[in-house]
Amino acid sequence: MLRATFLRSLPLFALAFACRESSAPPSVPAAPQAQAPTPARPAADVKWGVIEGRVRLTGTPPPPTSSPTSGTVVSVCGEQTEDRSLVVGSEGALAYTVVSLKSASALPAPAQPPAEPVLDQKKCVYDPPVLAARAGGQLTLRNSDPLVHNVRASSSTKRSFFNVAMPLEGMSTRKPLPEEPGVVPIHCDIHPWMRAVVRTFDHPYFATTSQDGRFRLEVPEGSHTLVFWHERLPQAEKTVNVRAGGSVQVEQDWAVTDLRQ
């Protein structure tokens, strides 16, 4: 009688727990043994070659567009700032094109990985306007202006990754980039003409063309597909075969008529 009264006083979840504890656990079939992944070759055993080349825009490029600044920053930044989404040098050299290997996440790490990217704020523009970086890596932010700026990184769906106020000249901070590879637009809410973009990858085989449109990648020997990305031009691909100790020259040209606004 006392035992029955005690059991009735217990909460239902306790009785259920006691029943589960008293019953024998069901037998679980043994999981099949997973095969160990094939290890990547050690970097010391890898033979390396070089891919280098030049990216150009053929035809007469449109003149750069300008945006008026506001009265509070004219003394530092001037009355106008130029749009830097298209930077074309002599002989059509196209700067700030991102060149990368396609499907390179399984390749061994290079002896010299890309340097951590730095985004500066100079004369009321982001410098450089285009960066390439590892997904999930760190982006260094710097303010070289005696002005208040902010750096807001967001996705194409307006999801915000970070938003940092930088009120002091010379201040610097580091922020993590999204884990998923993709394109990260960057804006300043205080000065809406300021914009940049970061192209991120799940591997370290990428470069950004210099002012003369040139790039260089050290890669393992073998066949590789290069991807050329510019935010105002259609993506292009070229496949090359790299021999150990050799160098492959690649030219990528876009026509002015390919430009997007």
Shape: globular
The strand order across the widest sheet is: 7-13-12-9-10
According to CATH, the fold-level topology is Immunoglobulin-like
Low-confidence stretches: 1-40
Task: Determine and state the CATH class.
Answer: Mainly Beta
Number of domains: 1
Oligomer: single chain
Q: Portion of residues in helices?
A: under 10%
What is the annotated CATH architecture? Sandwich
Helix-strand category: mainly beta
Question: What is the number of helical segments per DSSP (H or I, 4+ residues)?
Answer: 3
Straight-line distance between termini: 86 Å
String of helices and strands: HHEEHEEEEEEEEEEEEEEEE
CATH homologous superfamily (4th level) name:
Cupredoxins -  blue copper proteins
Rg over CA atoms:
27 Å
The biggest beta sheet reads: 5 strands, mixed
How many runs of DSSP E, i.e. beta strands? 18
Signal peptide: 1-24
InterPro entries: CarboxyPept-like_regulatory (IPR008969), Cupredoxin (IPR008972)
Protein name: Lipoprotein
Keywords: Signal
SSE diagram, text form:
Elements: H1 2-9, H2 12-22, E1 48-58, E2 66-68, H3 74-77, E3 80-82, E4 98-101, E5 118-122, E6 125-127, E7 130-134, E8 138-143, E9 149-154, E10 160-166, E11 172-176, E12 182-187, E13 195-201, E14 206-208, E15 214-220, E16 222-230, E17 233-242, E18 247-255
Parallel strand pairs: 1-18, 5-8, 7-13
Antiparallel strand pairs: 1-15, 2-3, 4-14, 4-16, 5-6, 8-11, 9-10, 9-12, 12-13, 16-17
Q: What do you see in this structure?
A:
Residues 1-24 form the signal peptide. Keywords: Signal. This is Lipoprotein. The chain is mainly β and 261 residues long. It has a single domain, classed as Sandwich (Immunoglobulin-like), CATH 2.60.40.420. The protein is 9% helix and 42% strand. The protein is built from 3 helices and 18 strands. It has helices at 2-9, 12-22, 74-77; strands spanning 48-58, 66-68, 80-82, 98-101, 118-122, 125-127, 130-134, 138-143, 149-154, 160-166, 172-176, 182-187, 195-201, 206-208, 214-220, 222-230, 233-242, 247-255. A 5-stranded mixed β-sheet has the order 7-13-12-9-10, with no helix packed on it. Strands 14-4-16-17 form a 4-stranded antiparallel β-sheet, with no helix packed on it. A hairpin with a 7-residue loop joins strand 12 (182-187) and strand 13. It is globular, with a radius of gyration of 27 Å. The protein starts with a helix and ends in a 6-residue tail after the last strand.
